[in-house]
């Protein structure tokens, strides 16, 4: 996709519907709501055709879609090979914009795998390449990736302003999908700092925006956020579970492996808050298996935390719970997730098993 084509796609998004700028070249007609298996099958087919024709720029563009499909399906090793191959093809073609998109994909994958320092480096390079190549969309996506990396680390002061800036830019350009992303990120920061009313309003705005734009993925993530807030603020367990069930249908239809796992983890959270500890244990165990299958360390650690809390409520020995929490604290420190580390300390206090022992990081599984 040339710079002018990227701009044309952005203008199409400005007319009100969400678009997927990572689907480029021969794959540019794919919808943001295309199932990932469809994206992968068609992407591989078009990639092979471009390779046979010796069209390196098209190889890069098709390879990007393949990399993103693999990443979202949780096939991280395949995704790693695909984004690097896309970058090499873009470099051979002298296509700076395509190089930027490949770097963005690689940086997003690094964040998903818990390699946050690498994520920062690749996403900064992607933003710089996007600026050099004149592709405002990839530059915006890369800056958004940097903001999200900081947010999941809990560095809200550093990235809060960037989230607001990116929201304003997305609204100005009419990019519904990016607007939804920014609204959800800001909402999550408000939720995590206890501003539940603001968080709920923003998640609801994100859901409405995604619905109008036919962005099913963004809508599913927004429903998850709404479910979280109505559970923790209002204690409305049944509404939260209904919202998560609606979102789960989308996750399954589109084969959104990561989103589905996070949906299951949130269902565990809702059930735990309601005192339904055995049901929560089952959901946390399911989410844990899903995250481990896709080698997603953040989700794995958070599911382990929920599972440890549920088991403790069901009568697990306090020393075993303390050892598990201590191991999780080490894991979260290694990933660099400050907010999640605080959650471990709060869990220890809540369960009456603190202060936590020093752990070698292995703990009790």
Automatic annotation (TrEMBL):
Q: Which domain of life is it from?
A: Bacteria
SUPFAM superfamilies membership:
TPR-like
Show the Pfam families listed in the entry. TPR_12 (PF13424)
The name under which this protein is listed is MalT-like TPR region domain-containing protein
């Amino acid at each position: 996709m040339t710079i002018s084509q990227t701009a044309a796609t952005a203008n199409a998004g400005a007319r009100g519907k969400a678009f997927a700028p990572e689907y480029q070249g021969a794959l540019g007609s794919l919808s943001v709501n295309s199932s990932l298996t469809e994206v992968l099958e068609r992407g591989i087919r078009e990639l092979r055709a471009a390779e046979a024709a010796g069209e390196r720029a098209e190889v890069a563009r098709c390879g990007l879609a393949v990399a993103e499909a693999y990443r979202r399906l949780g096939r991280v090793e395949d995704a790693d090979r695909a984004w690097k191959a896309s970058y090499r093809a873009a470099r051979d073609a002298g296509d700076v914009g395509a190089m930027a998109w490949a770097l963005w994909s690689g940086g997003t994958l690094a964040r998903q795998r818990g390699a946050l320092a690498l994520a920062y480096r690749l996403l900064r390079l992607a933003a710089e390449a996007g600026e050099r190549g004149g592709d405002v969309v990839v530059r915006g996506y890369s800056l958004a990736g940097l903001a999200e990396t900081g947010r999941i680390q809990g560095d809200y002061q550093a990235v809060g302003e960037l989230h607001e800036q990116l929201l304003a830019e997305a609204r100005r350009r009419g990019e519904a999908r990016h607007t939804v992303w920014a609204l959800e990120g800001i909402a999550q920061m408000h939720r995590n700092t206890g501003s539940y009313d603001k968080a709920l309003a923003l998640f609801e705005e994100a859901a409405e925006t995604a619905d109008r734009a036919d962005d099913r993925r963004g809508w599913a993530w927004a429903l998850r956020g709404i479910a979280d807030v109505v559970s923790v603020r209002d204690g409305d367990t049944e509404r939260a579970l209904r919202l998560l069930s609606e979102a789960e249908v989308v996750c399954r239809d589109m084969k959104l492996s990561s989103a589905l796992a996070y949906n299951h983890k949130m269902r565990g959270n809702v059930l735990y808050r309601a005192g339904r500890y055995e049901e929560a244990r089952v959901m946390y165990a399911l989410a844990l298996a899903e995250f481990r299958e896709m080698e997603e360390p953040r989700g794995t650690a958070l599911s382990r935390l929920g599972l440890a809390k549920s088991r403790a409520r069901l009568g697990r020995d306090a020393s075993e719970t303390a050892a598990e929490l201590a191991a999780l604290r080490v894991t979260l420190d290694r990933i660099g997730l400050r907010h999640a580390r605080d959650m471990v300390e709060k869990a220890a206090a809540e369960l009456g098993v603190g202060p936590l022992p020093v752990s070698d990081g292995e703990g009790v599984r």
